[in-house]
Automatic annotation (TrEMBL):
Protein keywords: Metal-binding, Nucleus, Repeat, Zinc, Zinc-finger
Protein name (Swiss-Prot/TrEMBL): C2H2-type domain-containing protein
Highest taxon in the source lineage: Eukaryota
Pfam families in the record: zf-C2H2, zf-met
Gene Ontology molecular functions: DNA-binding transcription factor activity, RNA polymerase II-specific; zinc ion binding
Entry GO terms, CC: nucleus
PROSITE patterns: ZINC_FINGER_C2H2_1 (PS00028), ZINC_FINGER_C2H2_2 (PS50157)
Lineage: Eukaryota, Metazoa, Spiralia, Lophotrochozoa, Annelida
Organism per entry: Paralvinella palmiformis
Location(s), subcellular: Nucleus
Position of the signal peptide: none
C2H2-type domain location: 31-58, 59-86, 87-116
Length: 117
């Protein structure tokens, strides 16, 4: 397996964790992780989360062999190898592949939303 810089993956994982924590403040999350108590709105997201606790990553990146717990996580990871980062935080310069990720980042880190007047 090739040696690679894990910093982008660490950032992505941290963002996902924070987004889940923020989302859990809302009602309607009916699937709870038996190991850490996080709540999920869908059974498949809970299943992928539990695979991470167990260290099971059945979906592999064809470029760097990184294992992912779900096809969604793999798809997000694949952007690191050539996806365009079209959305940038005006406060800290962090770049995102989707507008929703930027919006969640702004809300989570208490940045002032540049799109609101």
């Amino acid at each position: 397996m090739p040696v690679m810089d894990t910093k982008p993956d660490l950032i992505a994982t941290t963002i996902i964790y924070i987004m889940v924590k923020v989302r859990n403040r809302n009602t309607g999350q009916k699937y709870q992780c038996p190991l850490c108590g996080l709540l999920f709105g869908y059974k498949w997201t809970l299943a992928a989360h539990c695979r991470q606790h167990k260290g099971k990553y059945p979906y592999y990146c064809p470029t760097c062999d990184k294992g992912c717990a779900s096809t969604s996580y793999l798809k997000r990871h694949l952007y690191l190898h050539g996806g365009s980062t079209d959305f940038e935080c005006q406060t800290c310069g962090m770049q995102f592949y989707q507008m929703k990720e930027l919006t969640d980042h702004i809300k989570t880190l208490n940045h002032v939303d540049p799109y609101k007047k």
